[in-house]
Design goal:
four-stranded mixed sheet, Immunoglobulin-like, five-stranded mixed sheet, 32% helix, globular, 5 helices
Amino acid sequence: MAILTRERVDAEHFVARYAQGTLNDSELESFEEFCVLHPEFAEQVGTDRVLIDGMRGIDSVRRPRAPRPLIYALAAGFALAAIGLAFWFRQGGGATGALYAAGVTLPVTTSAHLASPHRVVLLRDGSALALTVPADATALPLKIEPAVTRDAGKLRVTLAEEVDGRWNVRGMVDGVLATPGEEAAVDVTIDLTKLTSAHLRVTMETEDGKADEFELRIVRNPAT
């Protein structure tokens, strides 16, 4: 699978072609992986798709010619849908809200049973880090140790889960700062109640494109 860059995405019009459904299988897989790491492109795709569908809808009402107020109503509806989809993508694949920054009050269902905090570091062999939690854990606090992104200032933290071989974004937090000191860490909490997979990926990205990527595997202890 070829690795995409921002330059290639722009030059080959990946956003428009994805919205139109004209990417081949290889391009589709590469672009969706790219969107996991660059969620702002997912927002653009959502808007483009709504506009395309909107134009088709307007064309369908031209025969017979629809009253002008109906056209305005349709256009307003499409605009609202575009805004809604943009928010949907920005929240991460369905606005599941499965990722929280430190200091944010968690929903009651999420905070029902917090697992003990786990420290997350990059493994040299690139394998997934196994994190053991109680069988009934509803949330998992993480202290993620930055590597490439150390001392980078504010970070965007993105959570994705693997479902049927695809990575789906399940949450995003902007403007996160690492705690200072020799053992610098980024504190976030994962809402386990809103996930369907035990195979997760957390990405921390700077404004200039540097990124740390951590693969995690949640292991639940059998109930005793």
